Amino acid sequence: MLGYLRNPWTLAAGCLLLAATAASAESGATQKAIAARGALNCGVSSGVQTGMSTLDSNAKWSGFEVDFCRAVAAAVLGDAEKIKYVPLEIKTAFATLQSGGIDVLARTATHTFIRDIELNVEWPGVYLYDSQGFLAKKSLGVKSAKELEGASICVSAGSNYELNLADFFRKNNMKFTPVAANTRDQNEKNLASGRCDVYANVLSALAGAVSKLGNPDDWVVLPELISMEPIGPVVRKDDARFRDIVAWTLNALIAAEELGITQANVDQMKASSTSPEVQRLLGATGDFGTKLGIDNAWALNAIKAVGNYGEMFERNLGEKSPIKLQRGLNNLWNNKGLMSAPLLR
Amino acid sequence: MTDAATLPAGRARPVPGSAGALPARAVSWLRRRLFASWRDGLLSLGVIAVLGAIAWAIVPWALFDATWHGASRADCTGSGACWAFVSAKASQFVYGFYPPAERWRPDIAFALLVAGLVWLMVPRIPAKAYAGFFMMIVLPVATFLLLHGGFAGLTVVPSDQWGGLLLTLILAVSGITFSLPFGVLFALGRRSRMPLVRWFCIGFIEFCRGVPFLTVLFMAIVMLPFFLPSGTKPDPLALAVVGIIFYEAAYMAEVVRGGLQALPKGQYEAAMAIGFGYWRTMLHIILPQAVRKVVPGVVNTTISLLKNTTLVMVVGLFDLLNIVSAGVSDPLWAGSQAEGYFIVGLVFWLMSFGLSCYSRAIEARFARAERT
């Protein structure tokens, strides 16, 4: 998500990775290693992205990324607690995935061409459609990003967002002054102290910022969204079987929402639902799990652990969380969103 | 009045009969030290105004308007600091992810560390050589065994669960304890007559001084796994400890080398003249004098080492700073940055200031020893 592509270290590491990881490619090896270890090694962000992965007062991990780890662990091992969380900065995240330090990276990593092709990693799906927008103080009186001529704008240093921002202003023949900072924390402080007029970041980050900045009514997200950031879990390219498991864990959570399966009613649905799709998904009929090489109750376990996609979103980022992010594009396809799962047949 | 001796010429105005009442002495002290001339007075007033403004901003925030109890940020309704955040997260800040039922083990380790420090630092307690042995051998081994467990019925607590202040102290104490001895070895090696030893030491020192610590850690965590059998992951804590020790040893080596070069050649010649070999010359004649000369430099390096420990986030370790960063992102406590970082700053300042005080005490002791 950050601009690691322009970071020479990551590029150098990436090139080396390409050379070094030609070996040890065997479909199913990851899953065997997880079973032998008895724990999923899951890479998450380093505890500083509100709503994504944070530590609660008992030093337990929680958040959207963490819930996805739990779903995968429940699907593969039948137990959502059997996880070793590996907190990673974006600088080291992909290299750690490549070297086998983690099995899956459930971080806010945007899917891009260079990452996909050159880093030899793969996005089995998208769990968050984020968009870059602008956050401004209401008292500034700005109604549209087109009115930002000459504004000073807070942005993460060296990130994709900086590039998107420059593109947007060039397209609209406007000028701006970037105020670049390294972390979200610093950006939020710069915004609060008035060092910049507007903060540019993805919506989930802007919502997190508002939740930290005191009265939410003082702030407004401008209507223009200037980029689409598809964010999803990342796995190594060499293990197609494990890729499938991660992809279908995500699909199962999305399908569950569409089929009306929730954390609370999942057992009852398995016992009494007459829908063939529900029966196949929850393992009442068919052998989807067995075909994936895992327990037939994989989807049941995953939904029991974190609920369906909608529940996972609302709990960590949406209305039930302090962040209050609108679901927007992350609604199901039949509710003006982009989320959909392949057919369960 | 000895004060007069320290004042610039012409400013000394000892008040006759100043052994009088306390208020009178205080007034005279103020007049002499703060308001001796109108320029002094102006400066003093300026400084007082700045300090007062800082205190005016901080004290009501930190004390009078602060909220001390609460279950989430929403309970902090006052305009002051939300110390409820710190008390709710305190155990996490101190122990990291260490399982609550096992926290008596780090407690014992803390107690051992305090005992060792008191033994080492209080001049009246005898047997300093044993204190050194305790700090360098007994304490690290005992701390590791205690924290890691896996024997005598103690459950294993893997090192990725150690965090917070505990981790900061592990990194700092092991770094400080071992970087000086290694630094001395590198400094001697750099001045050695054996070319291979000398070249190795110069190469190592210049490499470490030429590369940021963050880069060393980054390379270790990213590149090392590719040279190890697939699936084996180096222990991040071990990487960080070894990294800090050797990286700081390079800086220590240069500090110690300064001391070695400051010694007159006569010292070496005298030692040789009475038939001392290399190691006896170094151990008994040269190093004791050289190290005395560079105490401020050594403490300086030590303090920078202490602050470098916060860079271990890159290998996925949660030292005090990083666990507080994670704590302030907890949605339940969103908006508690000021309180969190205030505490981190305070703890690091206390540790660094403690080191400086200790260093000044040592310097004063050496100075007294030289006078007598």
Automatic annotation (TrEMBL), chain A:
Keyword check for Transport: yes
Keyword terms of this UniProt record: Signal, Transport
SMART domains associated with the record: PBPb
Superkingdom in the source lineage: Bacteria
Domain Solute-binding protein family 3/N-terminal: from-to ranges: 39-269
Signal sequence extent: 1-25
Family membership noted in the UniProt record: Belongs to the bacterial solute-binding protein 3 family.
Protein name, as recorded: Amino acid ABC transporter substrate-binding protein
Organism: Bosea minatitlanensis
Lineage: Bacteria, Pseudomonadati, Pseudomonadota, Alphaproteobacteria, Hyphomicrobiales
TrEMBL record, chain B:
Homology family: Belongs to the binding-protein-dependent transport system permease family. HisMQ subfamily.
Residue stretches spanning the membrane: 41-63, 104-122, 129-151, 163-188, 200-224, 236-256, 310-328, 340-358
Record's bilayer topology term: Multi-pass membrane protein
Keywords: Cell membrane, Membrane, Transmembrane, Transmembrane helix, Transport
Organism: Bosea minatitlanensis
Localization per Swiss-Prot or TrEMBL: Cell inner membrane; Cell membrane
CDD domains: TM_PBP2
Highest taxon, organism lineage: Bacteria
Domain ABC transmembrane type-1: 165-354
Pfam families hit by this protein: BPD_transp_1
Gene3D superfamilies: MetI-like
Name under which the protein is recorded: Amino acid ABC transporter permease
